[in-house]
Amino acid sequence: MEEYSDKELLEQFRNPSSKEQAFNLIIRKYQKRVYWHIRKIVIGHDDADDVVQNVFIKVWKSLEGFKEESQLFTWLYRVATNESLNWLKQKKDNLKVSFDDVSQGLSQTLADDHYFHGDEIQRKLQQAILTLPEKQRIVFNMKYYDEIKYEEMSQILETSVGALKASYHIAVKKIEVFITKG
Amino acid sequence: MNELNNIPEDSDNLEKHAPQLFKIEKRNCFSVPDNYFGNLPSFIEQERHLATMKANNFIVPEHYFEELPDIIQGRIRSEAEMGDVPADYFDTLADRIQSKIKKTEAKEVKVIAFKDYVFSKYTAVAIAATIALLLGWNTLMKNKDIVKEPATLAMTETEKTAFTQSQEVYTLDESALIDELAGYENTGNGQETVSEVDQADIADYLLENNVDVSSMIKEL
Question: Using CA atoms, how far apart are residues B168 and B37, in angstroms rounded to an integer?
């Protein structure tokens, strides 16, 4: 399948006759990256599936207003991050639990997840990551797994590069301690 | 921020800053169901359709919501004005009521006791009618022997009518007389009506004036 550039996809999306087809191509182009970003935040596949669908429905509703001041990919990541954080907040509000309780819940989800195939050390690494505060966890995942540059991450999370560097460094130190102690 | 100042230049060097983490193979241990990404676009498309259907399909007239606040505020003002009283309404209310009372008193008609009213005005008529009937009856009785039934056949039409009317008198009894008096209604100016009078008042009158209605009827 021919892969269109973001610029071409956006032009097609703004044309009513090709809008739906362009949207389908945008999903196909970015679905995996968006999904994995969400999955590492909400952990369970079913939850990630709900969130990723909500993300693309929001994209459908608001993409016409996208001003191309940033890359489409960056904008999609921001929508996905916000939607994932909202999902976590709703979970906390609905269960009336604290952050620690949500982290424990996510650890349990990880333990029960049929779609996790890591060994003991991989599972331990994931548990270490789940002890991090939400935004620190997102920064760690984006840097460690997705290898996104700080400058790009700065646009997605609307946070300064310095703060992101510090956040990542602290996250790494915490994880190292968790693994070493364990 | 101390945290920012303490970040080493080579903070990305995991081998140096997090050797245990560095040893762990960096790989994605999560997986997805078979053909998940193949089906995801169509799932999202279905969800998008559902979301569209869930949207409100009712419409409102053009500029409805722009005009609605003014309409509501206008109605609130209108209702508030309806609930208001004119300026100085309560200040002058007492004076206006007193003035009206004075005017009403000036116009008030003379109150006449019902008994006096009914029997002064109508008793004379009733008594006159009764006397006329008695006189008529006496005349009739005096000519009793003369005026036989067959004579009736010889009466003129005028006489027959007069006779029939006089015959109806016999059907009146005491209660009918009282009822007739009591049933009289003066509807001309809305004043008190005879029907509102207790029959006991009429009976009182008859007793006070020593009117022996029974003997009067017997005489009839």
Answer: 114
